Amino acid sequence: MQLGIIGLGRMGGNIARRLMAHGHSCVVFDTKAAAVGELAKEGAAGASDLRNLVLQLQQPRALWVMLPAGEITERTIHELSGLLQSGDIVIDGGNSYYRDDIRRAQMLQQKGIHFVDAGTSGGVWGLERGYCLMIGGEHGPVQHLDPVFAALAPGKSGIPPAEGRAPGGTAELGYLHCGPAGAGHFVKMIHNGIEYGLMEAYAEGFDILRHATSAAHEEERYRLDLPEIAELWRRGSVISSWLLDLTASALAEDPELSRFTGYVEDSGEGRWTLMSAIETGVPADVLSSALYARLRSRGEALFADKLLSAMRHEFGGHIEPKHDG
Across the chain, where does the E strand assignment appear? Predict the structure, then answer.
């Protein structure tokens, strides 16, 4: 299948590579010509701008937008709306707000253009591990794109269905059509809110371990090997997870996390998750606390905040922003 990909950053480029490895063809565009050239050397067709990208695609065209949420995605989809034709499909694989998806789907529908939102989890490891995909949109376009989703998803990966669940369906392959426009990014939004909470729990726990040397009673003062404890918990522990795997890697490389300041960004989904919690009347104590911890980190950072920064770097390649102070 042929797919246009717009945005070749930390994830967009690897999405193209994974698709090509599974036999799909990609036409790629990025404002950085070097990124386009690199993918072209690997077998993709490069485009000089959005119009050139559209002209290289066969109808019905499918274009995957992999850009930061907000103005750049809004501007790109608006420009595409003037270049595409009825029956074409725009896929937003970034972290857009689900209400923007609903509005964009309605706008494109007036021109007969389909819109699909694909919440994409997998970070910089997606090329190797595959991407967990949470999909929203009309049934027909989503079914048309099934070969793309199947190629990007991890597959069963040796993981059996949950006990008591009847086998079958795409969820056990790592992708799911969650509902109409916006549903995919809504599920991804909650996914990221939960991620905030899990990361904060690990960060606070390891911070307590690190400070055990200052316990009130001398006999309770321990010098604990955090990298080894993280490695231990990866095996047989009920708190084992991929986030713990990444934590163990970060601590093994640098037990003091000296290259991190502890300034922890939030990408927006945590805030949107809490807005939905308030609107639906659902208490979200842990998730709200995790978001506030990220906001607090921009003052005087703790070791826990450094570990949050380290985890974000490990799974997503996120680099701490430069800031004063």
Answer: 2-6, 25-29, 45-46, 62-65, 89-92, 114-121, 132-136, 175-179
Specify the pairing of strand 175-179 against strand 132-136: parallel
Crossing angle of the two packed helices 183-210 and 285-296, in degrees rounded to 10: 70
- CA 1 distance to own-chain centroid: 24
pTM of the model: 0.90
What distance in Å separates the CA atoms of residue 123 and residue 160, rounded to the nearest whole number?
Answer: 23
Give the β-pairing of 62-65 and 89-92.
parallel
Q: Which residues face 63 on adjacent strands?
A: 4, 90
193-234 pLDDT tens trace: 999 999 999 999 999 999 998 888 888 899 999 999 999 999
What amino acid positions are annotated as catalytic residues? 188, 195
Main-chain phi, psi angles of 151, to 5 degrees: -70, -35
Q: Residue holding tokens 């597959």?
A: 155
